[in-house]
Amino acid sequence: MKIKQLHLQNIRSYADQTVDFPEGTILIHGENGAGKTSLLMGVFGGLFLSEIRNVGTNNFALDEFVRRGEDKGVVELTFEVAGTEYTVEWEIYTTSTPNDATLTSASLSSPVSGIRDVRSEISRILGMDEEDFASSVYVKQGEIDRLIEASDRAEMIDGLLGLDEIDEYIERMKMARRGAGRVQTRNSDSADERRSELNEDFDRDEEDFEEAIAAKDEEIRDVEGKIDDVEDYLDELRDARAEVEADIDSYEEVAEKKAEKEEQIEETTEERNRKQRQIEECEERIEELNDEIDELEDEIEELADSVDYDASTADAAADALDTVQDELQDASVEANDRENALEQAQDELDDLEQKLTDAKDELSELRDERDDIAAEIGGRQTDLDEAEDELNDAIDDRDELAVEFLPGPESTADVDASTIEDVEARIDHLEDERNDIETTLAQRETTLDERQSDLEEEREQSQQSEQELKERQSDLDALQADIEDAEERVDEVVDEFESRFSSLESRATEHDIDLAADELETAANERLPDLRADVSEEYNEIDNRIAALEQQREQRNADLDELRELEEESKCPRCKQPVDETHIEDEVAEIESELDEITRKLEAARSERESLEQTRDEIDALRDDVLDLIEFRNDEVKAAKENLDELRERESELEEEIADLEEELESHEDTIDGLEAEIDDLEDEIDGLQTDRDEVVEEIETGETLANRFERVEQKREQVEDIKSEIEDLEDDRETVESEIEDVEERIEELEADIDQQKETVAEREGSLEEAAEHVADLEETKETVAEINDLYEQIDDRESERANEQQDIEHYRETIENLNEQLATLRDERDDLTERLGDTDIEELEEKLEEVEDKIEEREQTRDELQERVQTLRDERAELRNELSNLRDLKEKIDTYERKTEWAREVHDELDETISVYETVKSELREEYLAYINEYTNDIFQEIYRNSSYQRVVISETYDERSNSYDYDIQLLRDDGMTEDPSNASGGERAIVNLALRAGIYKLIAELEGGDRGRLPPFILDEPTTFLDEGHVDQLEEMLDRIRDWDVPQVIVVSHDETLIHGADHACRVEIDETTNTSRVTMNTAGAD
C-alpha cells in the first residue's frame, strides 16, 4: 500500500494544501506546532474518517478538526493498494449539516457514499481496522510504552498477527457448545415433562379412543336417520300448506279486484259531478264579463268628451293618440332649443365672471409677491453681513490650527489655501504609521486569542482529568467496598460448602464410600449409582426369596387344611379308605413345624428387605445432596470467586488509570503555567501598542479637523458670493412684478363692462323658455287622456276574448260528462262479474285449515331441531375424542422428537469439544512460531540501534495467567549478568528503543505474513521517534531506517523536528507555519536538495 496524495482544506492549521507522497523514506520535519502531526492526522482521517477521534491518545471533537473560524473542512486522500488506486473525500461540517464521505476507484462498480459504508469498505481493502493500523504501522508521538506496558498487549499483538481470529472461532465454538448443552438439557427436560403430562392427562390408550369414536359414529347415523324421516313428513305438510295458501291467495285476489272496481266507480262518479260544477262556474263568469264590458264603454264615452279629438271607436282613439304625440314632439323640440340658448348665454356670463375673479386673484398675488421680494432682499442683505463675518472667523481658526499641526509655518501669515497640500501629506504619513501599529497589534491579539484558547482548552482538559481522577478514586473506594463484600461472600459460600461436604462425607463413610471434594461428580455419576445398583440387586433377590417363602407357606397351609379335613372325616378324600389318626397327627405336627420355620425365615427376609430399602433410600438421598452440593459449588462458590477475581482485576485497572490521570493532570498544570506567562507578556505588549496607536489616531483626527477647516473657509467664501448674486436676482424680479400688476388692472376694467351686457341677454332668453314650457305641459295632459281611452278599448277586447274561452270550456265539459257516463256502465258490469266469481267460498274455513297445517309443521320442526341438537352434541363429543386422540399422538410424537434432539445435541456437544481442542492447539503452535520470529526481528533492530551495555537483548515469551485463565505476552530485558528485568525499570530512552524495535519486528512479521505482497503492505509511520532518545541513539535511528528499507517496504514516513534524520531519508517534507495567518505550508524535496 502507498499513500499517493493528500489534500487538506480548512483542516486545523491547513487552509488549502496538496501534498504528493513519493515512494521510499519520507522525513516530515519542521518546528514544533508547525502542523506535522496534523498532516499525519489528515492521512489517518482520510483512511478511517471519524474513528480518528478514538484511536491512541486522540481526544477531540470532530468540529475541532476543522480550521478555526471555518464551517467546513475537507480531507481528500488518494492511496494505492495492490496496484489499484482509491480516492476518499471526507467532508466535515461544524454546522448542522451532516458530515459525509465518498470513496471512488476504477475497481469499484460505483462510488461508495456515507461515513459508515466508506470506513467499512476501506477496512476491507486494507485488511485492518483503525486500531490494528495504529497498533502495527503507526507509532504515535509519545506512545513509547503502548506495547511494552499495555494491559491489552496480548489482545493487541494477537489481533495484529491474526491470532484473535482463532479466539473468535474458539469463542464461537464455546457459544455453540453452550447452546448445544442448553438444547440437550431443554429437550431432555421437555421429554420428561411430556411423559409426566402423558401419564397425568390420559387414562386410556389409542385403541380405547378409536372404539369410543366408532360408537359415536354409529349413534350419529341412527339419529340422522330419524331426522330424514321427520324431513320427509315436513315436506308433505309444506305441500298441503302451499295448496291452502294458493286457495286463500286466489280468493283475496278476486276480492281485491272487486274492491278496486267499486273504488273506480266511486271516483268516476265524483269526476262527472266535478265537470258539472265547472260548467256552472263558466256560465257565471260569462255574466260577469258582460257587466264589465258595459262599464268600460261608459268610461270611454265620458273621457272622449274632455278632448278635442275623435275617440268614438278604438281605431279613432289610436289615430288621435298618434296626432297628439306628433304635436307634443314638435313643442318639446322648440322648448329644448330655447333652453339651450339660455344655458349658452348663462355659460358665457359665468365665464366672464370667473375671468374677473381670476384677474382679481392674480392682482392680489402679484402685490403679495412684490412685498415678499422686498422682504427677502432685506433678509438676504442681513445674511450677507453674517456670512462675511463667519468667513473671517473660519480663516482665523484654520490659520491657528495649521501653525499648530504643521512643522513648516511659523505664524498665521504663512498660511494660505495652498497649505492644504502639506496637511494632506502629513495625514497620509500618520495613516501609514497607524496601519503599521495596527498590523502588529492584530498579530499580537491573534496570538493572544490562540494562547487564551489553548489555555482554556488546557484548563478544560485539566478539569476533565481532575474530574475523571475524582470519579476513578470514587469508583475505587466503592469497588474496594464491593471487594470486601465479595470476600465475605466467598468465605460464606466456602464455609457452607465445607460444612455440607463434611456432613456428606460422614454419611458416605456409613456406606463405605470415601468422598473427596474434587471427585463429587464421580461419586454422584458412578460410585453412588453403582452402589445403589448393588443394593437394588440384593433387594430384588430378597424380594424373590420372600415371594418363594410366601408361596411355600400358602402350600403348607393348604396341606394343613387338607389333613385337618381328613382328621375330621377319618377317611382319605381321594380313595375313601380309613386313615390312622396317629399318622394324621404326626403329619400335622411336621407341617406346623415347617410353617414355623418358614414364618421365621419370612420375617428375617422382610426385615432384611426393609433394611435394604432404607439403605437404597439413603443412597438416593445422599446422591441428591451430592448433586445439590455440586450445583452449589458450580453456581454459588464459583460465581462468588469469579466475581471477586473480576473486582480485584478492576481494582488493579482503576489504580493504573488513577496513576495515569495524576501524571496527565500534572502535565496539564505545567502547560497552563507556561501559557499564562506567555499571555501576560502578550497583554503587556498589546497595551503599549494600543497606547501608540491612540496617540497617532489623535494626531490624524487633528489633521482631519484642519483639512475640514480649509474646506469650511472655501465653503464660506462661496456662500458670500452666492448671497450677493441672489440679491441682484431679487431686484430684477421685483421690477418684473410691478409691470405685471399694471397689465392685470387694465384687464379687470374690460371684464366688468362685458359682464353687464351679458346679464341683459340672459333675462330675455329666460322669458321665451317659460312660454314654450307651458305649451308642452298642455299637450302632455291631452296625451294622457287619449292613452287612457286606448287602454280601456284594450280591456274590452280582453273581456270579450275571455268570454269566448269560457263558452268553449262549457262545450268541452259536456262532452267529458258523456264519456264518464259510458265508463260508469262498463265498471258496474265488471263488478257484477267479480261478485259471481267469489260465489260461496268461506275464507275463514281456509284460514283455520292453514293454521292447523302450520301447527303440525312447527311440531315436526321442533322434533327435527331436537334431533339435530342431539346429532351436534354427538359430533362435538366425537370431535373431542378425536382431539384427545390427536393430542395423545402429538404428545407421543413430541416425546420422540425431544429424545432425538437430546441425542443430537449430545453428539454436537462432543464434536464441539474436539473442535475447540484443535483450535487451542493450533493457536498455541502459531503463537510459539510467531514469537520466535518476533524475538529474532525485534532483537535485530534492538541490537542495531541500542549502543549501551546495560541490556543484551529483548526477551518476549508467552505466559499463562491462572486468574484470568488466559495467555499473555511477557516482555523482559536481558542484562549482562544473565538476569532479566521488566522494561518499566529502564529509562525513557531505553523504553522508547524497545518499543521501536518491537514495533518494527511486528511490522516485519506482518509483512511476511502477507506473503511478500508489498502492494498490500501499509507504510511504516513513526511520529516523533526521537522523543526520549539521546544524540547517540538518534544517530542509530538512521541505521534502523536503512534496515527497514531493506525489507522492501514501499513507504516509510518519519515525523520529527530533528532535521539530522534527513541523511537517512529519500525525501524531505518540510512543514512551516505563517505566524501571521496561522497557516501551515508543505514543501516536498529530494533529501539533501536545497
From TrEMBL:
Can you tell me which residues bind ATP?
12, 32-38, 141
Is Nucleotide-binding a UniProt keyword of this protein? yes
Q: Where does Zn(2+) bind?
A: 572, 575
- Residue ranges, annotated region (Disordered): 177-207, 253-278, 363-396, 428-491
Biased composition (Basic and acidic residues) is annotated at 189-198, 363-373
Superkingdom of the source species: Archaea
Q: Which cofactor does it need?
A: Zn(2+)
Q: What does the record say about how the cofactor binds?
A: Binds 1 zinc ion per homodimer.
Q: Which InterPro entries match?
A: P-loop_NTPase, Rad50/SbcC_AAA, Rad50_ATPase_archaeal, Zn_hook_RAD50
Recorded GO molecular functions are:
ATP binding; ATP hydrolysis activity; exonuclease activity; zinc ion binding
| Pfam families (alphabetical) | AAA_23
Q: Where is the Zinc-hook domain?
A: 525-624
UniProt lists the family membership as follows: Belongs to the Sph1/Sph2 family.
Q: How does it assemble?
A: Homodimer. Forms a heterotetramer composed of two Mre11 subunits and two Rad50 subunits.
The function of this protein is: Part of the Rad50/Mre11 complex, which is involved in the early steps of DNA double-strand break (DSB) repair. Rad50 controls the balance between DNA end bridging and DNA resection via ATP-dependent structural rearrangements of the Rad50/Mre11 complex.
Write down what this protein is called.
Answer: DNA double-strand break repair Rad50 ATPase
* Protein source organism: Natronoarchaeum philippinense
